[in-house]
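So, can you check what follows?
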Amino acid sequence: MKKLLLMGVVAVLMGCALTDSDDNAATDAAEQWAWAFFNCDFHEAAAYCTAESNQWLRFAASNITEEDLKLLQGTAVEVTPTEYFPEANDTMRVVELKVRNFLKPTAIGTPSTIQEEGLFHVCVVNRDGKWLVRMAGLPRSEKQSRD
């Protein structure tokens, strides 16, 4: 009986460790992607994205000008602690990121500005054992600016 109980405890602990490992891997992928994406390093961001996300990276890259790049002074990315997201499961996580000093999207022909802070929810999926960001569009800040 003791052996059975001990095996049950070990199985539960191993299951928790796997979940924590997946959470860490998903969070790391989201953070690495965000750093590259918001610093306009779209080639590097592609390494952390699903194949179907590449169209959004190309679109974002096509709307960046040399003047926009001159505005970037170093974007900061921070993973924020999140409560439970009902969408999370064994192959998908939602990671909340706080991004500071990033280019604010503007209308074509309008000069870009730097957004002080934004809050983003990023969908990360497990593909063949690797956690990757799945972009269904360009990221939009949940935290609206005052202007």
Observations:
- The two ends are 66 Å apart (CA to CA).
- The mean pLDDT is 78.
- The domain at 2-133 is CATH 3.10.450 (Nuclear Transport Factor 2; Chain: A,).
